[in-house]
Amino acid sequence: MWRNLTKLAAQSWKGISSGGDVLLRTFLFGILLGVVAAAGVLYAVPAVDQYREVSIVSVAPNGGNREAFHINIPVDRVMTGSAGQSSGLPIGLKWPKDDVFANVSTEVFKVRNAKNAVVGVAARTVAKESDADLIDWIIHLPARGSLFVGMEPQPLEGGHRIGKIQAGSQEFDNLTGFVTESWVSDTSGEDDAPMGRIELLATYVSNSDPHEDQVAESLE
Amino acid sequence: MKYIVVLLFGLLTGIALFAVGLAYNPLVGRQALSPLAVTDSQTVLLSYSAVASDAIMYTNDGESRIDPIPEKVQQLWEAPIRQTSTMAMVLRDARNQVAGLGIKVSSAAESTRLLNGKVLVDSIWYVYLPGRGSFFVEQSENYWDYLRDIVLPAYRSSGGTWKGKWMGNITAGPGALGTARVVGGSGEFVGMEMLGVETLSVSAWRVEDGPLAAEGQLIIELPAAESADLDFELDDLPDDE
């Protein structure tokens, strides 16, 4: 078999070098073209292309940028889980019965921007600790990044809470700032209107060193 | 005409050769040993079932391979979140005791580059351990080895199932050594900047359902100072003997 293959390869090479077998050369050219085309397509066409809504960011009066999100209740609620609740959301949710979850509740939501378009997913966890209560948010905006916010457990005047941005990823990586959460009841009176909305107002402040930025720009 | 047919046949052969070469190129992918495997610092080890049906809740766009759990959970069908999945799960400690709650949100990453062996997913974890505190994990995961070693063989098998023993480190960044960034939120983790790694151990996978038997682990390396304090406290404990 090896002898036959070697013979075939030798004949092919002879055919190529002598310019005799055009068909074989066409086939080999096709292979080369296929390899180059596949590599080119993989290089040029992105395998993942996330859909983006335009970010609606405004400049805060005392520095930083501000972005408003909201969650329509109950339509944007994906999950509600807590110990002792008669019926969790969604139907069929089995919240763990272990004692460690006795004082924990978690909600998962879809998050909307100021134009009422869904732009991300958020989770809010509330826990009663012996020394202080805990209210944490994670807000994930695909293709943009994520925020981790630790809320002050005590509400401020007006009923809203404020929390520090403890960490961010991707475009929020170098930002600090804070997020406020507040509940706004619906007063429109329309039949299909939500009960209300949770408003999240994020204020981002750059954490990067301006001096370092200037050095980087001058190097460029 | 025959030249066009031969050219097309060659073109298809070339594409197939390229695909095979890419998938089985030993120089592409192959994640290195987890940097936390050799750490001297204290680590927090949390494990979870990576099978969606074991989760408290799992949701995606509703058209992916893995079905949302519970069945009537809202699906993430809107365009900006269509390539995102969310999972809430019970986390267990190294002694297999229930330790807390984990919420993982993952999105397909635009930095995916198949030519370089990078099938990337941007993900975040929120972890709450009652009595201990909470922390946030930000990572980029690479599923190239997972696809090559599990998914491709499953598609090739006649029953559409893969069985075996695969264990891999899926965290690929953003840390320089391929580690996740972990930020403490409350309790004993407050103010901490830590490193983390997520690993997956899979023993059965089916084309229709995804993982049938799989376990994940989150390994969090505590900062050296905290580890030293813990060591000191452990040294101070009276011996039982």
Quick structural gist:
The complex is a heterodimer of chains A (220) and B (241). By secondary structure, chain A is α+β, with helices and mostly antiparallel strands.
Describe the structure.
The complex is a heterodimer of chains A (220) and B (241). Chain A has 220 residues and is of the alpha+beta class. Chain A is built from 3 helices and 10 strands; from the N terminus they run ααββββββββββα. In chain A, strands 1-2-10-9-8-7-6-5-4-3 form a 10-stranded antiparallel β-sheet, with no helix packed on it. Chain A is elongated and about 90 Å long. Chain A starts with a helix and ends with a helix. Chain B has a domain at 41-55 and 90-234. In chain B, strands 1, 2, 3, 4, 5, 6, 7, 8, 9, 10 and 11 form an 11-stranded antiparallel β-sheet that branches. Chain B is globular.
| Structural domain tally of chain A | 2
- Annotated CATH topology of the largest domain in chain A: AOC barrel-like
User: What integer value in Å does the Rg of chain B equal?
Assistant: 21 Å
Largest sheet of chain A: 10 strands, antiparallel
Count of alpha/pi helices of chain B: 3
Q: State the helicity of chain A in percent bands.
A: 10-25%
What is the number of E strands of chain A?
10
**Estimated share of beta-strand residues of chain A:** 35-45%
H/E series of chain A: HHEEEEEEEEEEH
Low-confidence stretches of chain A: 213-217
Mean pLDDT of chain A equals 83
Order of helices and strands of chain B: HEEEEEEHEEEEEH
